[in-house]
Amino acid sequence: TGFEEDSVHLSFYPTVEETAIDRDLEYRMQMARLISSVVLRIRNKININVRQPLRRLIVPANSDAERLAIDSVKGIILDEVNVKEIEYVDDDSGIVQKSAKPNYPVLGRRLGKRMKAVAKSVEQLTTKEITELEAKGHWVVDSGDGDPITLKQDEVTITRHGLEGWSVESEGGLTVALDTEPDEELIREGIAREIINRVQNMRKEADYELTDRIDIFLTGDDEVRQSVEHMKDYVKNETLAETVSFEIAGKHDFIKEWEIGDKSCTIAIQRNTNL
Fold first, then answer.
1. In this structure, are residues 232 and 243 in contact, taking their beta carbons and an 8 Å threshold?
2. Per-residue pLDDT tens over the stretch 213-248
3. Helices 74-81 & 64-72, crossing angle to 10 degrees?
């Protein structure tokens, strides 16, 4: 109060109040970011647009505390990655098959003639054994001459193979499995979301106000029309549409043709002035 520094270089800098840091919140948000990042990377890798809902993802949770932490941010995760549900397994052996092989450039110099026997032992490890050994951070394997060899983590390469119909990715020590096969219900919702996206873009191009109510006119492939019909209330709520018609007749403010994957449609919009 009343004190002014002559220069910013002479100013008093605030110190960190360690007791004000919510470590639990930091951990929960870190988990949310990590899981979301992995799922979005899977989507990008297999070319499934984030507007296409997917049924579920599976995350290993090694303790009740970890599961509760993820549950507390589940809504954030599911909304970010557009997945319906999270399921848990005790460890990632429940969602992947693992195989191991030696890191030959590293091990070859150390083991010499024992390399062949060690390689055979490593390649015979089961998924369960690899999971157990990962937890320890080192591997003890048969060297072929009765003298066990302890291998460090960087001396073994572990490969994860996703279960059929699932894609698996790892980051920061966390493995996530994503169910990548949408059913008919999810496909319909995905198409409806795409239509909503196109209508929102058209509203901007037509320079509508955010609160303007509209009427939508749509023609196109049967699957597009059926999806919009099935999700009509959702489409109307998201686009502020009073009506959705499956023919283009009468006047409209703006009309545009769109491609949605391998499907095509034409959308027209009209500002509703009857309200």
1. no
2. 999 999 999 999 999 999 999 999 999 999 999 998
3. 60
